[in-house]
Structure formats: C-alpha cells, structure tokens
Amino acid sequence: MTPTPGGGHFVGGRFGDGGGDRHRVLDPSTGEEIWSFAADTPADVDAAVAAATTALPAWAGATPAERSTILGGLARELEAVAEELAQAETAQAGKPIRLSREFDVPGSIDNVAFFAGAARVLDGKASAEYSADHTSTIRREPIGVVGSIAPWNYPLQMAVWKVLPAVAAGNTVVLKPAELTPLTTLMLAEASQRAGLPAGVLNVVNGPGRSTGEALVSHPGIAMTSFTGSTSVGRHIAGIAAANGTRLHLELGGKAPFVVHDDADVEAAVRGAVAAALINTGQDCTAATRAYVHRSRFADFVEGVADLMGTVRLGPTRDPDTDQGPLVSTTQRDRVAALVDRARGAGARVVRGGRSPGGALEGGAYYEPTLVVDAGQRSEIVQQEVFGPVLAVLPFDGDDEAIRLANDVPFGLAASVWTRDVYRAQHATREIQAGTVWVNDHIPIVSEMPHGGQKGSGYGKDMSTYSFEEYTQVKHVMSDLTGVAAKPWHETVYRTRRA
Ligand code: NAP
Ligand code: MG
User: Confidence class of residue 493 from pLDDT cuts 50, 70 and 90?
Assistant: First the structure.
C-alpha cells in the first residue's frame, strides 16, 4: 500500500480538499491509480495566501533558536517516516526503491537538518561607523509570503529545497507541487505539523500549473515567486512577476556537458557517464546529456558506455534489484521517444536502446538506456533538454573546441570535466558556463554548497547559505551619533541664516 496524506491540500494547518476537478495520481511503472485529489481553485489559493499572511508576523518575529528547534524536529519527524516517504516517492514518481531510499529521502532529510542549523547563522556585514557621525547596522529580514512551484522529478527534495531556506529565514510559504507527484509534499506538511511548525507557515496547494499554479504566482498577496521547472514555464512566470513587481527565483532546465580529455581515466569516465546519464531515468536537471570525448578515446568510450548500459536492469520499482524505473508518465516517455526518433531521422545512430521494453514492463512508462552518436552539435537532441535516459556522444580534437561545444547551448546549469591534468581542469572550470562544474565526477550534491543556473537555466541559488540571498532582504539602518540639531551636511542644502 502506498502511504497517502490526509487531504488534497494543507492550508492553515488543516488538510482539506479543493473546489476543483478531481485529478488522479498514477504509478508510472504500472499505470495504476494510487490516489486522487480535488484541484485547488483560485479561492483555495486565496485561503492559503491568507493563512500564510496571518502566520507571517509571529514566524518572522520568532528567534533563530525557536525556528531552528522546530526545523530540527522536522528532520527527526521525517527520519521517523523515511520508509513511508520512500514508498510514496517510488509509487508516484516511478523511482527504483533503492534511489528513493538512498538518495531522495536521506538527501531531503539532510537538507532539512542543514537549514535547522543555518537558521541560527544568518549573518551580514558588521555594524560600523562609515561616516564619522553615524552608526550603520544591517538587518536581514524575510521577504514575506513566498509562492513556490516545484517539479515532479525529485518531488520531496524539490519541496525541501524550496521550503527550508524560506522558512529558516522567517518567511511563510504556499507551495504547489507538480500535479503528477503531490504525495510526499503533503507528507512533508504533515511532518511539519507534528514538529510544531505553527499553522500557516507552510501551506500546500495542489492542482495543475496552468490553473492552480498560475493563480498562486499571480496572487497579489505573495512577495516572491520561487520556481523550479522548465525554462519555458519559467519565462512565462517571469512575465507575470514582472507585471506584479514580485521578486523571483528561477531554477530552470539543464543540458549538462560531460567533457572527457585524452588523458582521462576512461573507465572512470565511462562509469561516471552511465550513472550521471541514467540517474532518476535521466530526469535530472544536472544529468550528463552530452559527452564530448577526445577523438583518440571516442571509440573506447562509446564501446564502454554501450556495454555498461547493457547491464542496467529495468524492472518493477519496488524491487531493490531494479536499477532503472519508468519515466514519470507515458506522456514524458513518448516525448523522449519522439526526440530519439527525430534524431535517428536526422542521421544520428542509436548504438543502444532507443525503444521501450515489452513483456512484463509494457504497461509502464519505461524506456531503455539510450546511447546516440553521430548527432550534430546543432541538432535538437544535442541542443534541447530530453529529460530521459539518453546520452549523446560527440568527438572533439582540441581543448578550446571542447569548451566551445560545452558552452554552445542555451542552458548553463551543470557540467563536468574529466582529466588528470590540473591545468586543464582549472582552465575548464573557469571557462565552462554553468552553476556547478565537477572534476572527475558528475552528480554529487551537498547541502552546504549552492545549486543554481546560469544563462537559460535561471538565476538564484537553492541549498547552502547562499539561498538566504534569495529569501531575505537586507535593510540598512543608519543612526545619528551626534545628537546635534544643526548637522553640518544641512549647510549643503540650505545655509543657516540669522533672522
Ligand atoms: P514544468 O512543466 O515547467 O512544471 C514545473 C512546475 O510548474 C509544475 O509544478 C507545474 O505544474 C507548474 N506550472 C506549469 N505551468 C505553470 C503556470 N503557467 N503557472 C504556474 N505554474 C505552472 O516542468 P516539469 O516538466 O514539471 O519539470 C521538468 C523541468 O524542470 C525540466 O525542464 C527540468 O530541467 C526542470 N528542473 C530544474 C531543476 C533545477 O534545479 N534547475 C530541478 C528540477 C527540475 P503541473 O506540472 O502540475 O502542471
Ligand atoms: Mg509540465
């Protein structure tokens, strides 16, 4: 049985149901319904924003220690239901249970624990006299009510990345998860209540992006929109934010390059590429999608990746022996299949995969690990986000060419460089346009370090104390030290004249 939450939305500390149409949550490994909920209408979104607005003054005024204690409790509450969270994540998103247990859930809990601590070390410039007559101090204040929108690929992690820095800094939140995957976000809200998070600090509304999501991001009561999702929806939301003057944080798509130099350890690069391309069935915004391999190592790399991809086991998501699950939906599977088919049509060669498995997996949204060569740099499969288990491999000849190709896409979220030459590595990490560059690895993340994009991948940071730059505003307080009525600088504006 899949664990299910107490209602379709969580507003002002209460579970309830929206006033809109019913939506089904499916297990993409079988196509079976696991839950359903009624979508939230603009009136439901209003109620959620009102609850967050009511909760704001007390939460913003709580001491860092008070906020930290509650968030520390949230980490422990999540730990207590870790297996239920893993089961729900696997059921709704089609993740192999090993991934949910070893990556999604512990990573989320670690992030909560990190922000419980970080809540106490919000800092800024020291107070000082920058003019002889004044003392300046800095206040770091919350923004207000944050409207957050999360995607379906890592539902619990993305909810945590959105909620934790915001509430640690004293904001209140209304969060909309993706319609396909709301379960673990609602379970997060449930756990926050058990941890003693005051009602209204975290609210979850639920429903499609174009209705419920749009009602949230265009609501006049929110001070900030924090969005993780596709570049196209992000730009649409940026237009709404611009019209309303709403502060904005955008974490958008990616198309990470994976650059393998001639001096690289090819076995390490092959193993790294397969893991980084197939993690979460490739539905990872930092996944390795374009490997650029020095021509002298190209054949070895392609053969190694093809062989290793051939050992990856697709299977039922609850089987701990399954390596790769389905895509999140048949729609997403069909999108990926169409991209690969168009690449084939345009002259690319599919060395492995490029189809859905039949047999026992036929009812699920499965797609085989896929390796593509001979696609041009300008081709769709190299330029656009696939968001599936597909790696394209292209050759290069010189270091500068590798960097030029790596940068030649609209995105800039993540990248890796594989070399044993420290100068090459340093040069590449400086030149590659991405929010994260790995050296001789690709994927690992840590709560202490920031995640975020450059170029079409958006701006602003998730995780780490850098995220407080998004969720706080700095106030300068300047206090007169002299107690003098006639201040010397007044003389510049008006001369003191005798009557
Ligand atoms: P998406 O279609 O952009 O949706 C993301 C979220 O936005 C969902 O909750 C969606 O709701 C909502 N939404 C859609 N239209 C909206 C609108 N008009 N107003 C308000 N909200 C709206 O992206 P996705 O397909 O779910 O997720 C995959 C994408 O996310 C990929 O491009 C991936 O790279 C990106 N991503 C980026 C990061 C990062 O950190 N940079 C992390 C993870 C994913 P519904 O789905 O319920 O309609
Ligand atoms: Mg979508």
Answer: very high
Mutate to test the pocket of ligand 1, among 24, 111, 230 (most ligand atoms within 8 A of CB): 230
Q: Which residues contact 189 (CB under 8 A, 6 or more apart)?
A: 5, 10, 202, 203, 204
Cα-flanking dihedrals φ and ψ of residue 287, to 5°? -55, 150
pLDDT band for position 6 (50/70/90)?
confident
Query: Residues 79-108: what's their mean pLDDT?
Result: 98
Domain that holds residue 282: 256-439
Q: Is 218 in the pocket of ligand 1 (CB under 6 A)?
A: no
288 and 407 share one domain: yes
Indicate if 372 and 322 belong to the same structural domain.
Answer: yes
Q: Which of 285, 368, 385, 470 is catalytic?
A: 285
CATH classification of the domain holding 197: 3.40.605.10
**Residue 122, pLDDT score:** 86
Q: What secondary structure letter does DSSP report for 453?
A: -
Q: Nearest-5° angle of CA 275, CA 277, CA 278?
A: 65
Tell me which ligand sits closest to the C-alpha of residue 232.
1
Active site residue 84: no
Residue 126 has pLDDT above 90, yes or no: no
**CATH number of the CATH domain containing 355:** 3.40.309.10
User: Are 395 and 295 a contacting pair, CB within 8 Å?
Assistant: yes
Same domain flag for 120 and 101: yes
